Amino acid sequence: MVALLVAVGAIALNAPHMSALDEPTALTGIVRDGRGVPQAGATVELLRPDTSVVASVFTDEYGRFLLAHLIPGTYSLKATGTLFLPTLRENLQVLAHRRMAVNLTLSTVVEAFQWLPAKRRTVDEPDDEWAWTLRSSANRPLLRMLEDGPLVVVSDMDTAPVLKARVILHGGANEFGEGGLHHAFEIERSRQDDRRLILRADIGSSEGASIASAETLVGYERQLTPDNIIRTVAAMQDLPGIQQTSVQQGIQSLVLRSSETMTLTPFLDAELGNEFDALRGASTQIANHPFGAMTWRGGDIAVSYHFATARNAQRANELDQASSVMPTISESQGTLRMERALHQEFQLERSGERTRYEVAIYRDRIAHPVVNGGGDLSVADLNSGYVVYDPVTELLNVAGGDYITKGVVGDLKSRVRGETWFTLSFADGDALTMPKFSLPPNLQQGLTTLKPRHTQMYAASLTGRVASSGTHWRASYRWQPEDTVTAVAPFDMTAPDAYLSLLLRQPLHCGHLLPNGMEALVDVRNLLAQGYRPFVTSDGSTLYFAQADRSVRGGVSFTF
Fold first, then answer.
1. Whole-Å CA distances, 451 to 239, 334, 343, 352, 398
2. Model confidence over 323-346: pLDDT tens digits?
3. Where is pLDDT greater, at 49 or 274?
4. Which GO terms describe its molecular function (predicted)?
5. pTM for the full predicted model
6. Of 2.170.140, 3.30.450, 2.40.160, 2.40.128, which CATH number belongs to 162-559?
7. For residues 496 and 314, what is the distance between their CA atoms, to the nearest angstrom?
8. How many of the other CB atoms lie within 10 Å of CB of 343?
9. Beta partners for 297?
10. pLDDT tens-digit profile of 439-475?
């Protein structure tokens, strides 16, 4: 018996070592551009010291790549994307039975250099005698010609801190609480591939508001090991113009998010996170929204299970997105409400060089679903305790009845040419609908008619880039019955905006009049104003409810 126990103990102690020896040698990572946006469809190649290619793969829609079953040794890793200079990471030591994470950044010719002060300015130095010098930019890259000809951005594994900044000026009523003219800046600092710090601030002003709105976000990312990444984000938002009643104005929110991403095996990834929300207006609301996912990958096929309890916090790599800071809020019986839900889905995904598809089955249980609307609101309806109103954008949020929905979501993406992709989307499930009224009801009675109905959604979109001008564009149309006022499959955040929508992002070049790094953005949503459900109340309000209001947002950004 003693000998048996000793043998079992020896096997248990050596089990981790045995499993490590069974783990194949692999390289994984994410390819991003200079602004941190993941680059789908980029080519990643592993090169020998003589620049011959060992293996080649394409990144998926999240910019991720995996090179498995490698032979240990010293290699270079090269990433190539349309409109970008190739990036080469040299002196990469691939260890046996280890899964290494290496992230790559693609740079344009403009981003490959920065102008920085050569020395500190002295107190008595005139402004017009300020001296400048040219040095290499992110990760100390060097522009170099490979033996096969192309110009590449080269960096060694021993990298220096990187500091990036962007200033944004934009306006247009695009979302609830985001009206007026906004001045924003963003600073990102990263060191090597294991740490990243981001700071973002946004100040909004409008003619109708005496106090400016403010939003601040701080995020930190740390790669503890090649298989473990933690992220933490803290955001505060103050919207002084939002009204719950004619005398109660202002809503403040605090959002704390954290997540951990783990590689359990060469083929199995997991992530787990949580969002803490604190909301203060006429009342105070506090909530936790956990989320998580488990993904198995084999070649170009991935199978995953995903759950979430809030639409704004679903994925670990999306915690710092600016569009998801404000909790989804409404009001019921004079009390602020946050939308609560339990979303579960199983997804099958296949990524190829020219064609990709995703199919998922899902089930949602949603409480206090937010319905968007707008129009002229009377004082009586404003004081009813069933609406949150933004006088700047003239948009409002109300709460619909709780409901449960389940169905199927599918996407088919095909590369038309170069960086142009065509996408077809389909969703089946329940959405809230609003009927037509023969006589004007009061607001509370009208909201009780919001009922779920099983229906479908169909969408088509075309995205691409113009190589000669650097223009990025997207045109999309998403249809579902016009009496529906919420989206089918509301947790599908990859679906395009409702009905006809257009997006144009254009780098600005005008000789020496404009500095490099300037970019213009035009975002048009629901151009034809479809899906509006008119609603006239007995108290004199002329309103409408819709999946998305027609809006045009424009802005200019400067990255340096």
1. 31, 22, 20, 41, 14
2. 667 788 888 888 889 999 999 999
3. 274
4. carbohydrate binding
5. 0.71
6. 2.40.160
7. 17
8. 22
9. 302
10. 778 888 888 889 999 999 999 999 988 877 888 899 9
